[in-house]
Amino acid sequence: MYLKILSSVILVIACYLGDVLLQLNSSHGSVMIRAVTDNLVHGSLAVLVWLLGYLSYWKCSAHVTSLGGHVTDSQSLATHSIIILQSVACGVISCAVDIDHFMAAGSLDLEAALHTSHRGILHNSLIVVTLLSVISTQRRAGLVLITVSLASHQLRDSIRRGLLFYPLGSTPPLPYPLYLILMVALMLAFRRHLPTRIRTVNRTAAPYKVV
């Protein structure tokens, strides 16, 4: 339980510090610096959601392993390496979501991309809802990773523009505390659905198909 609390606190602090950094750049930086900072914060938070979720699971697994499982050093190293790569991939995908600003603007001009009247398809939260329904039946690692990437990005954007559910409409901007709660909920919800597992520890879990 204390690992859940610690992971949640770390994530909340990271979310807050990321927004503080963006505010500082908004006051003193150029449009390009603000855009790059905002995008990097998106990616960093996605990485943290994945890593912290895994950290909580791994600690629990290590406890069970000491009671009877057998995991070699090479297996442990391979597992950690895969998780790090997946975390980086999660961050990269989250950063890439902002490409649809340029698609929506129909231009590579940054000012035009930042001031579009509508949001692009990758900011549509119905995609996340659809992926969640697919994950419930098709337990694939790639789908889980993409869902976490999109959801973390969209939740952070929601404090300014709400969640878009095109063509149904969109929500009002989310209160900041609700945003933080949902980010923590995202991390905890996927904590037990991570695709890379130490199978000798969790024998009863349904295996994921790695794509």
Please state the overall shape, judged from the principal axes of the Cα atoms: globular
- Helix segment tally: 8
Strand content: under 5%
Provide the spatial order of strands within the biggest beta sheet: 1-2
Specify the helix fraction band: 55-70%
What is the mean pLDDT? 80
Radius of gyration: 18 Å
For the structure shown, list the relevant keywords:
8 helices; globular; mainly alpha; disordered C terminus; 211 residues
Please outline what is shown here.
The chain has 211 residues and is an all-alpha fold.
Describe it.
The protein has 211 residues and is mainly α. The protein is built from eight helices and two strands. It has helices at 2-28, 31-66, 73-96, 99-105, 110-114, 125-135, 141-161, 176-189, and strands at 164-165, 169-170. Strands 1-2 form a two-stranded antiparallel ribbon. A hairpin with a 3-residue loop joins strand 1 and strand 2 (169-170). Helix 6 (125-135) packs antiparallel against helix 7. The radius of gyration is 18 Å and the shape is globular. The two termini are 31 Å apart.
